[in-house]
Amino acid sequence: MNALRSLLTVLALCTPGASALTYTVKPGDTLSKIAVAHHTEPADLMRLNRLPSTTVKVGQRLNLGNVAAPTAWPRAQATGLSTSKGSAFVRTAASRFLGIRYALGGTGKGGIDCSAFTRQVFQQMGIQLPRTAAAQWNVGQAVNSRDLQAGDLVFFNTLGHGVSHVGVYVGGGMMANANSYQGRTVIEPMLSNAYWAARYLGARRVLS
C-alpha cells in the first residue's frame, strides 16, 4: 500500500497540471532566473510562496505551482493603436522624455518619477495609464519575459514589498525608465543588468 501511494505521488508530480512541483534554490539563483527557467513569473512565485520580497536563500524550497497561460486583465483605454504601430512608435515616444531629472512624486519636465514617466510615454500613444506603478500593474495583459515586445510595461520590486518601480521595454533587452540611482530618465539594459534581473516581477501589455 505504501509503495502504491509513493508511485501515485510521483505520477501526480510528473503529470501536466500538477500543483505540487517544488524547486530548491541553488547558489547563484535569483527569483527572476528561477521563474524564467520554469516558464512562470517572479510575481507568481511570490504569491505562491507568500514571499515578502524577491530575495531567496540557498536551500529554500519554492512551490512552483501549476504553470498556466498568462492571466488576462482589463486593457487600458486606447485610441485604436495597433500593436505594430505602437511598437514602432514607442522609442520615439520614450525619447521625448529622456534626460529629465528624477524626482519622487514629480510629473513633468522639471522632475519626474517612474510611473509618471511611463504615463507620459503612453499618453503620446493615446493611452491613459493610472498614476502609480502599483496601479499600472493591474492594467493590460500579463506577458512572459520570453515574449516581451517594445511597449510592454515592466515591473520591479525595489523596496522589498511588491511593485515599486515601472519602466517601458523598448526592445533589444533594453528599457526606458526614470532611474532614481542615476537621477534621470534613461534607456538601459534590463534583465542583463544584475540589479534589475534580481528585482524583476513581470510585464504587462497595454498596446492593443
From TrEMBL:
Q: Which UniProt keywords apply?
A: Hydrolase, Protease, Repeat, Signal, Thiol protease
Task: Show where the NlpC/P60 domain sits.
Answer: 83-207
Note the SMART domains from the entry.
Answer: LysM (SM00257)
- Matching InterPro entries, A to Z? LysM (IPR018392), LysM_dom_sf (IPR036779), Murein_DD/LD_carboxypeptidase (IPR052062), NLP_P60_dom (IPR000064), Papain-like_cys_pep_sf (IPR038765)
Citing just one GO molecular function, the answer is: cysteine-type peptidase activity
**Signal peptide stretch:** 1-20
Q: Where is the LysM domain?
A: 21-64
Instruction: Establish whether keyword Cell wall biogenesis/degradation is in the entry.
Output: no
Q: Which GO terms describe its biological process?
A: proteolysis
Q: What family name appears in the similarity comment?
A: Belongs to the peptidase C40 family.
Q: Could you tell me what this protein is called?
A: Cell wall-associated hydrolase, NlpC family
Q: Which organism is it from?
A: Deinococcus hopiensis KR-140
Q: What is the lineage of its organism?
A: Bacteria, Thermotogati, Deinococcota, Deinococci, Deinococcales
